[in-house]
DNA sequence: CCAATTTGACCGAT
DNA sequence: ATCGGTCAAATTGG
């Protein structure tokens, strides 16, 4: 629905294009994370085009294009005609609260959360990628052979689940049709914060741009807030966002920001390192404190594994000491989890599952 | 020694 | 009874 063939272009083509754009965007986002902090001090009137700014501009163009292609602008929407980009909202679910303390000695395990607790009001976001690497650090916790598929499915959770209670998960499986690609489905949202997160940089970088940048049509993060200007979709929907806090992090915007979505939970896939920018903007307009959710591994976790067998390596990737150990959970206060007034955060307890 | 992965067991849903 | 998802002991790697 999101992508309809406007005019003569078949929906699949559009979907494919959007899919590519998504990838491009991801790449940009990631790249931005590596940019050196620009001369923030001198945000003088005329500065040489800083890489970050260029990226911002590029990004905004991208978003614009995506919005256009997406018609309704619901980029987070679904497109499965081409089998590539899907976002499904699952229905709410009966209570699922369990926390078995189980000291687990011996092999006696008691009821673990098993089964498809799919219906947690969670949404999933499926996509196809050539690599399992997506900028996040995952820890594999299971693998299963699936009935119809020749390839097993691997289950990952965010490395920071214990650390920070990050509830992001993903499932990967080699694409049947195209074994060189992976089918990756994301569930939940990253609420973790990583030191190497790219957001701060992004914010810093854009800080200058916001004020006097020659670009309009740019989404930039200023230290004081987020300023969104002239995004076709935003314009269309009349969303204007200006925000607030000195965000050092933006956390997921679960909520459906008011208007459109309605009850279903709209969520920014973790597949996208960030939530859709425009969604972010919208959300941000409603929430006051924003936190960044994306965590990125600054140092590429090595490898791509994959070679022949794939499926296994992936995730957490080696790392051993690297990004893995990051006990940044000092003051929860600074974590800025936003669980705001937004509606649908159905399982908050999933984010703060336990207490030590 | 610690942390990540492997792998079979367990469990809820179908 | 079967399937898919998760847990956690055992194993492996750094």
Automatic annotation (TrEMBL):
<keyword id="KW-0805">Transcription regulation</keyword>
<keyword id="KW-0238">DNA-binding</keyword>
<feature type="compositionally biased region" description="Gly residues">
    <location>
        <begin position="307"/>
        <end position="324"/>
    </location>
</feature>
<feature type="region of interest" description="Disordered">
    <location>
        <begin position="92"/>
        <end position="131"/>
    </location>
</feature>
<feature type="compositionally biased region" description="Low complexity">
    <location>
        <begin position="239"/>
        <end position="255"/>
    </location>
</feature>
<dbReference type="InterPro" id="IPR036576">
    <property type="entry name" value="WRKY_dom_sf"/>
</dbReference>
<keyword id="KW-0804">Transcription</keyword>
<dbReference type="GO" id="GO:0043565">
    <property type="term" value="F:sequence-specific DNA binding"/>
</dbReference>
<feature type="region of interest" description="Disordered">
    <location>
        <begin position="239"/>
        <end position="269"/>
    </location>
</feature>
<dbReference type="InterPro" id="IPR044810">
    <property type="entry name" value="WRKY_plant"/>
</dbReference>
<dbReference type="InterPro" id="IPR003657">
    <property type="entry name" value="WRKY_dom"/>
</dbReference>
<feature type="domain" description="WRKY">
    <location>
        <begin position="127"/>
        <end position="195"/>
    </location>
</feature>
<feature type="compositionally biased region" description="Low complexity">
    <location>
        <begin position="293"/>
        <end position="306"/>
    </location>
</feature>
<keyword id="KW-0539">Nucleus</keyword>
<feature type="compositionally biased region" description="Basic residues">
    <location>
        <begin position="107"/>
        <end position="125"/>
    </location>
</feature>
<protein>
    <recommendedName>
        <fullName>WRKY domain-containing protein</fullName>
    </recommendedName>
</protein>
<feature type="region of interest" description="Disordered">
    <location>
        <begin position="293"/>
        <end position="332"/>
    </location>
</feature>
<dbReference type="GO" id="GO:0003700">
    <property type="term" value="F:DNA-binding transcription factor activity"/>
</dbReference>
<dbReference type="Pfam" id="PF03106">
    <property type="entry name" value="WRKY"/>
</dbReference>
<dbReference type="GO" id="GO:0005634">
    <property type="term" value="C:nucleus"/>
</dbReference>
């Amino acid at each position: 629905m999101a992508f309809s063939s406007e005019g003569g272009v078949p929906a699949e083509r559009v979907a494919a294009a959007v899919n590519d754009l998504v990838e491009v965007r991801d790449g940009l986002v990631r790249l931005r994370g590596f940019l050196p902090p620009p001369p923030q001090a001198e945000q003088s009137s005329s500065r040489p085009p800083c890489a970050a700014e260029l990226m911002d501009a590029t990004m905004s163009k991208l978003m614009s294009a995506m919005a256009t292609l997406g018609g309704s602008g619901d980029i987070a929407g679904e497109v499965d005609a081409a089998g590539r980009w899907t976002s499904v909202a699952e229905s709410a679910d009966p209570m699922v609260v369990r926390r078995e303390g189980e000291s687990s000695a011996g092999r006696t395990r008691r009821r673990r959360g098993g089964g498809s607790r799919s219906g947690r009001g969670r949404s999933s976001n499926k996509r196809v990628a050539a690599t399992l690497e997506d900028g996040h650090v995952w820890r594999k916790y299971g693998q299963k052979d699936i009935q119809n598929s020749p390839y097993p499915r691997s289950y990952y959770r965010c490395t920071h689940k214990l650390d920070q209670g990050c509830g992001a998960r993903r499932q990967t499986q080699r694409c049947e049709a195209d074994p060189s690609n992976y089918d990756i489905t994301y569930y939940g949202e990253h609420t973790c914060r990583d030191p190497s997160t790219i957001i701060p940089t992004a914010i810093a970088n854009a800080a200058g741009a916001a004020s006097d940048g020659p670009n309009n049509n740019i989404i930039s993060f200023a230290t004081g807030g987020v300023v969104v200007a002239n995004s076709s979709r935003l314009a269309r929907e009349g969303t204007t966002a200006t925000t607030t806090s000195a965000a050092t992090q933006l956390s997921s915007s679960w909520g459906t920001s008011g208007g459109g979505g309605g009850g279903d939970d709209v969520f920014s896939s973790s597949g996208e390192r960030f939530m859709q920018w425009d969604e972010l903007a919208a959300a941000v307009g409603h929430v006051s404190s924003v936190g960044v959710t994306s965590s990125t591994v600054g140092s590429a976790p090595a490898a791509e594994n994959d070679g022949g067998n794939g499926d296994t390596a992936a995730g957490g990737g080696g790392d051993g000491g690297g990004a893995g150990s990051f006990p940044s959970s000092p003051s929860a206060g600074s974590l800025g989890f936003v669980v705001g007034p937004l509606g649908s955060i159905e399982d908050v307890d999933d984010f703060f599952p336990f207490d030590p």
